């Protein structure tokens, strides 16, 4: 019976990770909240790496056509200098530029940041900050398409992604908000945000592979981890599809309300 309860807890964590990873409400913050409510404490980074990998796979599957187009187009521009593919090459370049701030921040400060800021209080304040940011950009409708971006745009959005290293600050929220704030159209903001997510997540998986191999709880938690992985994979897919519809309709304001409500409740009760 205890095993079944443990499995159900990890399935719930998978649902939470999958549902919140694509949307601007912070998956890491929600995992901290749910783990506290369930009386759970993760040892090491194995669980985080596995569930993030599941979310990564789901998101890459959804954006597979865009990924293929950018890779093929970027490579063809390098080889032939055909201007028809220049926009793809520049988009790839801006993804690299936008990835650097968070990559550098993760290598230098991630452990320290999580040591200092991993608390329910921090999550509450971070959610309120996210809510304010979403409120401020609620009526913005940018004009920049994929081919209109600049290095400055990439740096600013990349810095926003670096800020999201703080638990409770949503990565997708920070990058989508920054993308809209610099003038991107909704669909370009969504695409650029999740193109930035892919390399930073792949890097995290590579750097964290040793944590999975050396995890002393690996054998004991194999089934719960597998259940959480599968659940996260499935739920991320449907959550991402749902969020794409929200972005297309420009209804980010509802996430602002959600962040305000959850942040205030956390301050009151936890």
Question: Largest sheet, if any?
Answer: none
**Portion in beta strands:** under 5%
Reading the helices and strands in chain order gives: HHHHHHHHHHH
The level of helicity is over 70%
Please give the domain count.
Answer: 1
> Which secondary-structure class do the elements indicate?
mainly alpha
Work out the helix count.
11
* Gap from first CA to last CA: 29 Å
* Annotation, overall tally of beta strands: 0
Rg from alpha-carbon coordinates: 19 Å
Shape assignment: globular
Low-pLDDT ranges: none
Average residue pLDDT: 89
Write up what this structure looks like.
- The relative contact order is 0.20.
- The chain is globular and about 65 Å long.
- Helix content is 78%, strand content 0%.
- The protein is built from 11 helices and no strands.
- The mean pLDDT is 89.
- The protein has one domain (2-269).
- With 270 residues, it is mainly alpha-helical.
- The protein has helices at residues 2-20, 27-38, 46-62, 64-80, 86-117, 120-136, 151-163, 171-181, 186-213, 222-249, 253-269.
- GO terms for molecular function: undecaprenyl-diphosphatase activity.
């Amino acid at each position: 019976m205890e095993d079944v309860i443990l499995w159900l807890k990890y399935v719930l964590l998978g649902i939470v990770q999958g549902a919140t990873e694509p949307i601007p409400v912070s998956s890491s913050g929600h995992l901290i909240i749910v783990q506290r409510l369930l009386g759970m404490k993760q040892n090491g980074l194995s669980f985080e790496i596995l569930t993030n990998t599941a979310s990564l796979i789901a998101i890459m599957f959804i954006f597979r056509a865009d990924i293929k187009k950018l890779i093929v187009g970027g490579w063809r521009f390098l080889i032939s200098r055909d201007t028809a593919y220049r926009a793809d090459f520049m988009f790839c370049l801006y993804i690299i530029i936008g990835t650097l701030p968070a990559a550098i921040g993760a290598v230098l400060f991630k452990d320290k940041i999580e040591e200092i800021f991993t608390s329910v209080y921090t999550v509450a304040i971070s959610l309120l900050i996210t809510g304010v940011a979403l409120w401020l950009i609620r009526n913005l409708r940018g004009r920049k398409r994929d081919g209109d971006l600049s290095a400055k745009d990439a740096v600013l959005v990349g810095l926003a992604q670096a800020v999201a290293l703080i638990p409770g600050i949503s990565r997708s929220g920070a990058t989508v908000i920054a993308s809209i704030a610099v003038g991107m159209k909704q669909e370009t903001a969504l695409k650029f945000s999740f193109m930035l997510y892919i390399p930073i997540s792949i890097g995290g998986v590579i750097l964290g592979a040793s944590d999975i191999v050396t995890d002393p709880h690996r054998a004991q938690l194999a089934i719960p981890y597998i259940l959480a992985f599968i659940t996260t994979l499935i739920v991320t897919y449907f959550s991402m599809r749902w969020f794409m519809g929200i972005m297309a309709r420009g209804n980010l304001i509802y996430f602002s309300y959600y962040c305000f409500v959850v942040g205030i409740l956390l301050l009151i009760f936890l």
